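hi got a favour to ask and not much time before my train. below you get a single protein, a line of residues and a line of whole numbers that encode the local backbone shape. could you go over both lines and see whether the tokens make sense for that sequence. a few lines back from you is plenty, here it is:
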Amino acid sequence: MSSSAAVPVPEAATRSHPLSEVLRRVVREAGLGLVTLGVVLLAFVAYQLWGTGFTESHDQSVLQRQFNALHARESGHAGAGSAGASSSGHAGGSSGGSAGGGTGGRAHDPVVGGSGSKAAAPGTARSDAAANGTLTPSPPVGQAVDHIVIPSIGVDSYVVQGVAENDLMQGPGHYPGTPLPGQDGNVGIAGHRTTYGAPFFQLGRLRAGAWIYITDPEGRTFDYRVLRHSVVNPDDVGVLAPSRRAILTLTTCNPPYSATSRLVVVAALVGRPTASLVHRPLGAASASASSATGSGSAGAGSASTSSAGGSSGSGAVPSAAPTVASLTAGNANARGPAIAFGALVVALWVAARVFASRRRGWRKAAALAAGVVVAAVPLWLCFEQVVRLLPPTV
């Protein structure tokens, strides 16, 4: 017989070399790490585009309730009737703005939109303050101050006082120190363009003649008509400089998903403005205004005094210009929490991988799934902090 017996293979030849085994494991883990990093980056993009929108939607609901409460209280103080009637007039003003956005028509006096014939005269409270020669303090940071509607681009948001990242996460923010809508001077409002609901995403589509309607807690609606839009350097704070006329300046990042420049839309108040009052900045806003305006702040102070005394024609209504850092830099305090939450995510995921490596079959898959769920919580918190590191209005 010619059949031959199988030749035994030496045991040493069947064993992998220890160095090659280690190299294979390193390459496998590096590949899995890169895949995981890619998934995390995609998740971060999704969080920016949609996840932040959930946060902004909740905050807008809070601002709406706060605004309605302020509106009811102001209406009661003005003797304009019941809170329900005032709210109805306010809602009618907003819907009228949407209907009249294309033609520029409004169902109310272009000076201010009253909620009825018994409503208090426009600017009564602020006019009384002006007659007494007093300066009214700025609204508290974080408080709802206005309701802005831009029908042509679908903007319908409540405006919060403040332009820090924590404020703009809630919606468009009013620059502290600038006049309130309806007053003489340069009213400044900033808003996100890609994150946190992106209220100003379509701001670049606004053209001359478009209408912007802003309603204050007293139920008065101020009509602004767009004059122009431009793109400036991100550190150009001159766009919020004091103005001799009643104008509105909207700012956001440009182009979308970036902050290399700043988109600015300027609109003019249609009709007669309310009293020319300067709202005294509180705390840090006052300090930043002094540092930003330099030696001109003394002249601004005297101008504001004369304005409050009723001499509105004496010159421009001063406003507290923001610092360059407040427009171009994110919140540096978020760096530490972002690193801490990121390290926690890595630690949890490594622990989950080690735990799953000792399991087989469905138990291994279940361990990995549980690791994903547990790591998702600090990952979400990490994303929140990373977004705060980005320049405002991105």
Observations:
- The chain has a mean pLDDT of 73.
- The first strand starts at residue 144 and ends at 150.
- The chain has two domains: 28-49+332-389, 57-328.
